[in-house]
Structures are given as structure tokens and as C-alpha cells.
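User: Hey, quick favor. My workstation is busy. Could you predict this chain's structure for me?
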Amino acid sequence: MTEPVEFETVSPPDEPARQAALARHEQLTKPPGSLGRLEELGTWLAACQGQCPPNPLRRPRIVVFAGDHGVAARGVSAYPSEVTAQMVANFVAGGAAINVLAAAVGAEVRVVDMAVDANTPDEVAELKVRRASGSIDREDALTDDEVNAAIAAGKSIVDDEVDSGADLLVAGDMGIGNTTAAAVLIAALTGTEPVAVVGRGTGIDDAAWMRKTAAIRDALRRAKPVTADPVALLRTVAGADIAAMAGFLAQAAVRRTPVVLDGVIAGAAALVAEEMAPGARAWWVAGHRSTEPAHTLVLEQLDLEPLLDMKMRLGEGSGAAAAIPLLTMSVRILSDMATFAEAGITGPAGDDPEEPGIDPDAT
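Assistant: No problem, here it is.
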């Protein structure tokens, strides 16, 4: 039997570095706080790196976790399950949205087949747990051994990436039916009724929406007895892909590596990861707000404010990738921007930013 996965205690980001970043922002040639959340982001990254100014982000890594879900057979998606394997091939070929976005922001993409219901190339199937997870409305998604193997896979991927120099991580997803599993996890962990977490996913019509609602209702009944046990919850109603993502997000915090969260699938995994490794959420920032209604519940539960709201719902890590330039800019502001002393500019005096310092309305 596969041994249960344990995570080391998560330590918070470095407080002295955070304070140093706050102090440096006060000295840069701008009114204090005038760059808003860019200042907050830079301060957070300085704390994550344990130094101020922080180093530039040189090796962001996006890991796409792929897996099929048996519940897709209930007609909960606008696409057939065969699309998962086809999209994995598209990722490998570099033709998917996440490949394009990653290239635009200087990130690399890695694809991992955790439970695709097809044969995939060896380079992506090395950690595969099974072919398709169980239909969660009537059976467990995984066995005990499978859920432990999936969590361990996510943990080992972080270790590989961080040891290879990754300084920013994103967990992406691909799997027909995965929004159904994510909605069940989110409903279970937030105490929400099924109808409040059901979204349109791949663009389903009203009939499919009703089928999806029924599947989530039935799966949620199965989930409630194990809600307090994160591993049992993953085994019962998640899937190998989401279980691996949860292990990935928990271990990233253990390894003191910042993460940009994507949408509803990563959000569901994040809720479980926080249960497995308390305090992990301090190492995450929400890249965007998905149009999936359950994602807002995730953001509220984790107390995260999204960086973007672009009406995106693709998954793959796309919303997180779109936010990476903001993190890059936030670091460069702390490292490259001149201080008042360096620029020979009179800084703010007292508590009044207008007298005699810089006009806060000046551009």
C-alpha cells in the first residue's frame, strides 16, 4: 500500500524582507501607495524571496495537470472526453493557449498526464495514476493507493522544478468534467449548496447544466462524511489531476516558492492544499477571477483578491499566466526605480504628501 503523503510545516514569508520592501517603497520617487497593488505584489515577492529588493523572476514554470473524469459520461460537458487526450497532444506540440501565453511572459510549460483516458507520450505519462477517475456521483474517484500516489506526484514535481531553479509556479489543468469535481470540492469545503457552485464550464446548455447540478448534488452527498479529512475528500470526489495539484500547491509553500493561482480547478485544489498544509495560502496570489461562480467562493475562503478580472474561464493556467507581467513589474519597481536621494528629488515631509513633497496628482 502506498504510504500517506505528509507535508512539512509551512513557514510564513520573511517578515524582515517585507518590512524592508515597505520601507523602500516609501523612498522611491512616487507618492507612498500610488502604485497600489503593484506595491503590494512587490512587497509580497520580497517576503517570499527573503530579500529586498527581490531578484527578477527568471524561471516561471507552468505545470498543466491533465486527467479525465468518469462523471463526464453523465453529459456534464459540451465536449467529449476524447478532447482531453487531444489537448494534451496540442500542449506538447505548443499549439494551445497556455503555450502562447507562456511564451509571451517568459514562462515554460510542463504537461503531466495524471489520469487521461488514453495513451499519451512517455514524457508526460511518467507519473500517471490511472486512466480516468471514477464517476464521483456514484463511486469514489480514486483508491487509497491512487490518491496517495497522485498527491506524492504533485509534491515531487515541485521538488523537481524548484531544484531546477523555478522561482514562480503555476498549476494549470486540462480535463473534461473537471469543473464538476472542482465544484463538489468547493461546495463541500465552503458549506455551499450545489446550485450555487454550478457553472457553465465548457459552455454547456441548460439541459447539461441541469445534469451537472444533479451530478454535483449526488457527489456532494458522498463527500460530506469525509469533508474533515482532505485526503479522503480527494479520494472520494476529486480525481488524480486535482489531487496532484493539491499536493503541488502544498509543497510549493513548504519549499517557500510563490505561486500564482489560476481559476476554479486550481482554486479547488488550493482549498484542499490549505487543509493539508495550513498556512500555504500565504505563498499564493490569485492571478484572476474566473467566470465560474464557485471560484468567487474560493477567493473569499482563502481571503485572496484577484489581480485580474478578464472574464476568462479556459483553465490551463491561462488566467495565472496573464497576471505574470504584473509580478514582473512589481519586482522591477523595487529593484530598478530610483529613490528620492538617488534622483536628487525632495521627498515627502510629515504626513502631508502635498507639502512640500511630490504632488500626488502629478503624472
